[in-house]
Specification:
376 residues; mainly alpha; globular
Length: 376
Protein backbone atom coordinates (compact mmCIF):
# COMPACT_ATOMS: atom_id res chain seq x y z
CA UNK A 1 0.00 0.00 0.00
CA UNK A 2 1.41 3.35 -1.02
CA UNK A 3 1.52 5.97 1.69
CA UNK A 4 0.18 9.27 0.40
CA UNK A 5 -0.18 12.39 2.55
CA UNK A 6 -3.81 13.38 2.98
CA UNK A 7 -3.10 16.97 4.03
CA UNK A 8 -1.03 19.60 2.24
CA UNK A 9 2.20 21.03 3.59
CA UNK A 10 1.12 24.06 5.66
CA UNK A 11 4.10 26.02 4.42
CA UNK A 12 2.53 25.88 0.97
CA UNK A 13 -0.98 26.73 2.18
CA UNK A 14 -1.66 30.48 1.95
CA UNK A 15 -4.41 30.26 4.55
CA UNK A 16 -2.43 28.29 7.15
CA UNK A 17 -1.87 29.93 10.50
CA UNK A 18 1.46 30.15 12.33
CA UNK A 19 1.01 26.66 13.74
CA UNK A 20 0.34 25.10 10.34
CA UNK A 21 -3.38 24.54 10.96
CA UNK A 22 -5.17 24.90 7.63
CA UNK A 23 -7.82 27.55 7.28
CA UNK A 24 -11.41 26.38 7.28
CA UNK A 25 -12.83 28.29 4.33
CA UNK A 26 -10.32 29.12 1.64
CA UNK A 27 -7.61 26.46 1.45
CA UNK A 28 -6.99 25.14 -2.05
CA UNK A 29 -7.23 21.37 -2.22
CA UNK A 30 -4.66 19.50 -4.29
CA UNK A 31 -5.99 19.24 -7.80
CA UNK A 32 -8.70 21.90 -7.37
CA UNK A 33 -9.78 25.16 -5.70
CA UNK A 34 -12.47 25.79 -3.11
CA UNK A 35 -14.57 28.89 -3.00
CA UNK A 36 -14.68 30.92 0.23
CA UNK A 37 -17.47 29.66 2.44
CA UNK A 38 -17.61 26.27 0.72
CA UNK A 39 -17.18 24.44 4.04
CA UNK A 40 -20.28 26.06 5.52
CA UNK A 41 -22.19 25.52 2.28
CA UNK A 42 -21.25 21.84 2.11
CA UNK A 43 -22.07 21.30 5.78
CA UNK A 44 -25.47 22.95 5.34
CA UNK A 45 -26.13 20.86 2.27
CA UNK A 46 -25.30 17.63 4.08
CA UNK A 47 -27.49 18.54 7.05
CA UNK A 48 -30.40 19.59 4.84
CA UNK A 49 -30.22 16.45 2.72
CA UNK A 50 -29.97 14.30 5.85
CA UNK A 51 -33.11 15.84 7.40
CA UNK A 52 -35.09 15.41 4.18
CA UNK A 53 -33.96 11.80 3.75
CA UNK A 54 -34.79 10.92 7.36
CA UNK A 55 -38.33 12.28 7.00
CA UNK A 56 -38.73 10.54 3.65
CA UNK A 57 -37.43 7.25 5.03
CA UNK A 58 -39.81 7.47 7.99
CA UNK A 59 -42.82 7.83 5.69
CA UNK A 60 -42.05 5.60 2.70
CA UNK A 61 -42.74 1.89 2.83
CA UNK A 62 -45.43 -0.75 2.58
CA UNK A 63 -47.57 1.39 4.87
CA UNK A 64 -47.28 4.92 3.49
CA UNK A 65 -47.28 7.81 5.95
CA UNK A 66 -47.49 11.31 4.41
CA UNK A 67 -44.64 13.67 5.25
CA UNK A 68 -47.01 16.06 7.03
CA UNK A 69 -48.28 13.26 9.25
CA UNK A 70 -44.71 12.25 10.13
CA UNK A 71 -43.91 15.81 11.21
CA UNK A 72 -47.20 16.10 13.09
CA UNK A 73 -46.59 12.89 15.04
CA UNK A 74 -43.00 13.87 15.89
CA UNK A 75 -44.14 17.28 17.12
CA UNK A 76 -46.89 15.64 19.15
CA UNK A 77 -44.47 13.22 20.84
CA UNK A 78 -42.06 16.05 21.67
CA UNK A 79 -44.82 18.24 23.10
CA UNK A 80 -44.53 20.94 20.43
CA UNK A 81 -48.04 20.63 19.01
CA UNK A 82 -49.10 18.43 16.13
CA UNK A 83 -51.40 15.45 16.51
CA UNK A 84 -51.09 11.72 16.95
CA UNK A 85 -51.75 9.37 14.03
CA UNK A 86 -54.15 6.44 14.08
CA UNK A 87 -53.10 3.38 16.06
CA UNK A 88 -51.54 1.55 13.11
CA UNK A 89 -49.73 4.63 11.85
CA UNK A 90 -48.27 5.42 15.27
CA UNK A 91 -47.11 1.84 15.70
CA UNK A 92 -45.47 1.66 12.26
CA UNK A 93 -43.77 5.04 12.64
CA UNK A 94 -42.48 4.71 16.21
CA UNK A 95 -41.88 0.97 16.52
CA UNK A 96 -40.60 0.15 13.02
CA UNK A 97 -39.51 3.14 10.93
CA UNK A 98 -37.94 5.62 13.37
CA UNK A 99 -35.77 3.05 15.22
CA UNK A 100 -34.45 2.01 11.83
CA UNK A 101 -33.78 5.59 10.73
CA UNK A 102 -31.99 6.46 13.98
CA UNK A 103 -29.93 3.26 13.84
CA UNK A 104 -28.94 4.06 10.25
CA UNK A 105 -27.84 7.53 11.40
CA UNK A 106 -25.68 6.13 14.20
CA UNK A 107 -24.16 3.28 12.19
CA UNK A 108 -23.48 5.47 9.14
CA UNK A 109 -21.96 8.29 11.22
CA UNK A 110 -19.76 5.79 13.08
CA UNK A 111 -18.47 4.13 9.91
CA UNK A 112 -17.90 7.43 8.09
CA UNK A 113 -16.02 9.00 10.99
CA UNK A 114 -13.99 5.82 11.56
CA UNK A 115 -12.97 5.85 7.89
CA UNK A 116 -11.77 9.46 8.07
CA UNK A 117 -9.72 8.69 11.20
CA UNK A 118 -8.21 5.58 9.63
CA UNK A 119 -7.15 7.46 6.52
CA UNK A 120 -5.62 10.17 8.70
CA UNK A 121 -3.76 7.71 10.92
CA UNK A 122 -2.38 5.72 7.99
CA UNK A 123 -1.83 8.77 5.78
CA UNK A 124 -3.54 6.99 2.93
CA UNK A 125 -6.91 7.70 1.28
CA UNK A 126 -7.37 3.99 0.55
CA UNK A 127 -7.47 2.97 4.21
CA UNK A 128 -10.71 1.94 5.91
CA UNK A 129 -11.65 0.34 9.28
CA UNK A 130 -11.49 -3.23 8.00
CA UNK A 131 -7.73 -2.87 7.40
CA UNK A 132 -6.92 -3.61 11.05
CA UNK A 133 -9.37 -6.49 11.34
CA UNK A 134 -12.25 -4.89 13.26
CA UNK A 135 -15.02 -6.07 10.93
CA UNK A 136 -13.66 -9.59 10.50
CA UNK A 137 -13.00 -9.89 14.23
CA UNK A 138 -16.56 -8.86 15.02
CA UNK A 139 -17.79 -11.34 12.41
CA UNK A 140 -15.90 -14.17 14.16
CA UNK A 141 -17.72 -13.43 17.43
CA UNK A 142 -21.12 -13.24 15.76
CA UNK A 143 -20.65 -16.38 13.66
CA UNK A 144 -19.25 -18.32 16.63
CA UNK A 145 -22.20 -17.39 18.84
CA UNK A 146 -24.65 -18.52 16.14
CA UNK A 147 -22.82 -21.74 15.20
CA UNK A 148 -22.27 -22.77 18.83
CA UNK A 149 -25.83 -21.93 19.82
CA UNK A 150 -24.78 -19.51 22.57
CA UNK A 151 -27.69 -17.79 24.34
CA UNK A 152 -26.22 -16.43 27.60
CA UNK A 153 -27.37 -12.88 26.72
CA UNK A 154 -30.67 -13.91 25.17
CA UNK A 155 -31.45 -12.02 21.96
CA UNK A 156 -28.38 -9.84 22.58
CA UNK A 157 -25.88 -12.71 22.43
CA UNK A 158 -24.85 -12.19 18.80
CA UNK A 159 -24.51 -8.43 19.24
CA UNK A 160 -22.46 -8.70 22.45
CA UNK A 161 -20.16 -11.37 21.04
CA UNK A 162 -19.57 -9.35 17.86
CA UNK A 163 -18.77 -6.18 19.80
CA UNK A 164 -16.39 -7.86 22.26
CA UNK A 165 -14.56 -9.90 19.61
CA UNK A 166 -14.13 -6.79 17.43
CA UNK A 167 -12.47 -4.90 20.29
CA UNK A 168 -10.33 -7.91 21.24
CA UNK A 169 -9.16 -8.26 17.63
CA UNK A 170 -7.99 -4.64 17.50
CA UNK A 171 -6.08 -5.03 20.75
CA UNK A 172 -4.49 -8.22 19.41
CA UNK A 173 -3.46 -6.53 16.15
CA UNK A 174 -1.94 -3.61 18.04
CA UNK A 175 -0.02 -5.82 20.49
CA UNK A 176 1.34 -8.06 17.71
CA UNK A 177 2.48 -5.08 15.61
CA UNK A 178 4.17 -3.23 18.48
CA UNK A 179 7.94 -3.49 18.73
CA UNK A 180 10.48 -1.45 20.68
CA UNK A 181 7.76 0.71 22.20
CA UNK A 182 6.54 1.85 18.77
CA UNK A 183 4.02 0.75 16.17
CA UNK A 184 4.84 1.38 12.53
CA UNK A 185 2.04 1.86 10.03
CA UNK A 186 3.34 -0.81 7.63
CA UNK A 187 3.62 -3.38 10.42
CA UNK A 188 0.12 -2.52 11.63
CA UNK A 189 -1.32 -3.01 8.14
CA UNK A 190 0.48 -6.29 7.52
CA UNK A 191 -0.58 -7.61 10.94
CA UNK A 192 -4.15 -6.60 10.16
CA UNK A 193 -3.99 -8.53 6.87
CA UNK A 194 -2.74 -11.64 8.68
CA UNK A 195 -5.42 -11.38 11.38
CA UNK A 196 -8.10 -10.84 8.70
CA UNK A 197 -6.98 -14.05 6.99
CA UNK A 198 -7.02 -15.98 10.28
CA UNK A 199 -10.48 -14.59 11.11
CA UNK A 200 -11.72 -15.70 7.69
CA UNK A 201 -10.45 -19.21 8.38
CA UNK A 202 -12.25 -19.29 11.75
CA UNK A 203 -15.48 -18.09 10.13
CA UNK A 204 -15.19 -20.83 7.51
CA UNK A 205 -14.62 -23.43 10.23
CA UNK A 206 -17.71 -22.35 12.18
CA UNK A 207 -19.79 -22.35 9.00
CA UNK A 208 -18.62 -25.88 8.21
CA UNK A 209 -20.01 -27.17 11.52
CA UNK A 210 -23.24 -25.12 11.45
CA UNK A 211 -26.61 -26.66 10.54
CA UNK A 212 -28.96 -25.29 7.88
CA UNK A 213 -30.85 -22.93 10.19
CA UNK A 214 -27.61 -21.54 11.59
CA UNK A 215 -26.19 -21.15 8.07
CA UNK A 216 -29.20 -19.04 7.12
CA UNK A 217 -28.76 -16.82 10.18
CA UNK A 218 -25.01 -16.46 9.61
CA UNK A 219 -25.50 -15.56 5.95
CA UNK A 220 -28.13 -12.95 6.78
CA UNK A 221 -25.91 -11.36 9.44
CA UNK A 222 -22.87 -11.21 7.17
CA UNK A 223 -24.83 -9.49 4.39
CA UNK A 224 -25.55 -6.54 6.68
CA UNK A 225 -29.03 -5.20 7.39
CA UNK A 226 -31.02 -2.86 9.63
CA UNK A 227 -34.18 -4.95 9.36
CA UNK A 228 -33.99 -5.96 13.03
CA UNK A 229 -33.69 -2.39 14.30
CA UNK A 230 -35.36 -1.69 17.64
CA UNK A 231 -35.10 1.07 20.23
CA UNK A 232 -33.07 -1.21 22.57
CA UNK A 233 -30.51 -1.72 19.77
CA UNK A 234 -30.40 2.04 19.24
CA UNK A 235 -29.72 2.53 22.94
CA UNK A 236 -27.04 -0.17 22.83
CA UNK A 237 -25.01 1.51 20.09
CA UNK A 238 -25.73 5.09 21.20
CA UNK A 239 -23.12 5.40 24.02
CA UNK A 240 -20.31 3.97 21.86
CA UNK A 241 -21.24 6.13 18.87
CA UNK A 242 -21.58 9.33 20.90
CA UNK A 243 -18.31 8.70 22.77
CA UNK A 244 -16.35 8.07 19.58
CA UNK A 245 -17.95 10.93 17.63
CA UNK A 246 -17.32 13.33 20.52
CA UNK A 247 -13.61 12.45 20.87
CA UNK A 248 -12.74 12.27 17.16
CA UNK A 249 -12.88 16.02 16.24
CA UNK A 250 -10.33 16.92 18.93
CA UNK A 251 -7.66 15.04 16.96
CA UNK A 252 -8.23 17.01 13.73
CA UNK A 253 -5.28 19.42 14.05
CA UNK A 254 -2.89 16.64 15.07
CA UNK A 255 -3.98 14.59 12.06
CA UNK A 256 -3.22 17.56 9.80
CA UNK A 257 0.28 17.70 11.29
CA UNK A 258 0.72 13.92 11.07
CA UNK A 259 0.02 14.15 7.34
CA UNK A 260 3.37 15.95 7.00
CA UNK A 261 5.12 12.79 8.22
CA UNK A 262 5.90 11.29 11.61
CA UNK A 263 9.18 13.11 12.12
CA UNK A 264 7.86 16.62 11.29
CA UNK A 265 4.78 15.92 13.43
CA UNK A 266 7.00 15.02 16.41
CA UNK A 267 9.01 18.21 15.94
CA UNK A 268 5.73 20.16 16.01
CA UNK A 269 4.77 18.63 19.36
CA UNK A 270 2.58 15.68 18.36
CA UNK A 271 2.96 12.51 20.41
CA UNK A 272 2.52 10.26 17.38
CA UNK A 273 2.39 6.96 19.25
CA UNK A 274 -0.14 8.20 21.76
CA UNK A 275 -2.27 9.73 18.99
CA UNK A 276 -2.20 6.49 17.02
CA UNK A 277 -3.23 4.40 20.03
CA UNK A 278 -6.08 6.76 20.89
CA UNK A 279 -7.46 6.91 17.37
CA UNK A 280 -7.18 3.17 16.79
CA UNK A 281 -9.22 2.65 19.96
CA UNK A 282 -11.79 5.23 18.82
CA UNK A 283 -12.04 3.55 15.41
CA UNK A 284 -12.42 0.17 17.12
CA UNK A 285 -15.20 1.48 19.36
CA UNK A 286 -17.12 3.06 16.48
CA UNK A 287 -16.72 0.19 14.04
CA UNK A 288 -17.28 -2.67 16.48
CA UNK A 289 -20.50 -1.08 17.76
CA UNK A 290 -21.76 -0.49 14.20
CA UNK A 291 -20.89 -3.99 12.98
CA UNK A 292 -22.38 -5.60 16.09
CA UNK A 293 -25.87 -4.20 15.45
CA UNK A 294 -25.91 -4.01 11.65
CA UNK A 295 -23.59 -6.75 10.38
CA UNK A 296 -20.82 -6.14 7.87
CA UNK A 297 -21.43 -2.98 5.83
CA UNK A 298 -18.50 -2.15 3.59
CA UNK A 299 -17.14 0.85 1.69
CA UNK A 300 -18.89 3.58 3.72
CA UNK A 301 -15.68 4.34 5.61
CA UNK A 302 -13.71 4.42 2.35
CA UNK A 303 -16.09 6.21 0.00
CA UNK A 304 -17.43 9.06 2.17
CA UNK A 305 -14.16 10.60 3.49
CA UNK A 306 -12.53 10.49 0.09
CA UNK A 307 -15.48 12.16 -1.66
CA UNK A 308 -15.48 14.93 0.95
CA UNK A 309 -11.72 15.33 0.62
CA UNK A 310 -12.13 15.76 -3.13
CA UNK A 311 -14.95 18.30 -2.62
CA UNK A 312 -13.53 20.36 0.23
CA UNK A 313 -9.84 19.61 0.67
CA UNK A 314 -7.93 17.47 3.16
CA UNK A 315 -8.29 19.56 6.34
CA UNK A 316 -9.49 17.28 9.13
CA UNK A 317 -11.36 20.00 11.02
CA UNK A 318 -14.13 19.57 8.45
CA UNK A 319 -13.30 16.08 7.20
CA UNK A 320 -13.83 14.23 10.50
CA UNK A 321 -17.28 15.61 11.45
CA UNK A 322 -18.20 15.94 7.76
CA UNK A 323 -17.53 12.23 7.23
CA UNK A 324 -19.88 11.44 10.11
CA UNK A 325 -22.63 13.48 8.41
CA UNK A 326 -21.85 11.96 5.02
CA UNK A 327 -21.80 8.42 6.39
CA UNK A 328 -25.17 8.93 8.06
CA UNK A 329 -26.57 10.34 4.80
CA UNK A 330 -25.27 7.42 2.73
CA UNK A 331 -26.62 4.77 5.10
CA UNK A 332 -30.08 6.36 5.48
CA UNK A 333 -30.30 6.59 1.68
CA UNK A 334 -28.99 3.04 1.29
CA UNK A 335 -31.45 1.64 3.81
CA UNK A 336 -34.33 3.44 2.10
CA UNK A 337 -33.26 1.93 -1.22
CA UNK A 338 -32.87 -1.53 0.35
CA UNK A 339 -36.47 -1.40 1.59
CA UNK A 340 -38.08 -0.02 -1.55
CA UNK A 341 -36.14 -1.05 -4.67
CA UNK A 342 -37.32 -4.68 -4.62
CA UNK A 343 -40.47 -4.25 -2.49
CA UNK A 344 -42.05 -6.22 -0.92
CA UNK A 345 -38.70 -8.03 -0.62
CA UNK A 346 -35.79 -6.29 1.09
CA UNK A 347 -32.26 -6.18 -0.28
CA UNK A 348 -29.34 -6.63 2.17
CA UNK A 349 -27.84 -3.23 2.96
CA UNK A 350 -24.27 -4.55 2.91
CA UNK A 351 -24.82 -5.87 -0.62
CA UNK A 352 -26.00 -2.45 -1.83
CA UNK A 353 -23.06 -0.57 -0.34
CA UNK A 354 -20.62 -3.08 -1.82
CA UNK A 355 -22.40 -2.97 -5.19
CA UNK A 356 -21.92 0.78 -5.47
CA UNK A 357 -18.70 1.03 -3.46
CA UNK A 358 -16.67 -1.49 -5.43
CA UNK A 359 -16.73 0.43 -8.75
CA UNK A 360 -15.86 3.60 -6.83
CA UNK A 361 -12.91 1.85 -5.20
CA UNK A 362 -11.69 0.66 -8.59
CA UNK A 363 -11.98 4.21 -9.98
CA UNK A 364 -10.15 5.54 -6.92
CA UNK A 365 -7.26 3.11 -7.48
CA UNK A 366 -7.00 4.12 -11.12
CA UNK A 367 -7.15 7.82 -10.25
CA UNK A 368 -4.47 7.52 -7.56
CA UNK A 369 -2.21 5.51 -9.87
CA UNK A 370 -2.62 8.05 -12.69
CA UNK A 371 -1.82 11.02 -10.44
CA UNK A 372 1.32 9.32 -9.13
CA UNK A 373 2.46 8.15 -12.55
CA UNK A 374 2.31 4.48 -11.57
CA UNK A 375 2.97 2.50 -8.40
CA UNK A 376 6.67 1.89 -8.96
Amino acid sequence: MTTTPTSPDPTLDPTAGPTGDPGTDAAPAPGGWRLPGSTALLTGGLLGALVVLCLLSAGVGAYHIPLGDVLSSVLHRTGLGGAALDRVGESVLWNVRLPRVVLALLVGASLGCAGALMQGVFGNPLAEPGVIGISSGAAVGAVASIALGLTFFGNWTVTVCAFVSGLVTVVLVYVLSRSGGRTEVVTLILTGIAVNAFAGALIGLFIFFADNAQLTQITFWQLGSLAQATWPKVLAVLPCALAGLAVAPFSARKLDLLALGERPARHLGVDVERLRVLLVLVVALLTAAAVAVAGIITFVGLLVPHLLRMANGPGHRFLVPGSALGGALVLVAGDLAARTVAAPAELPLGVLTALFGSPFFFWLLRRTRRKQGGWA
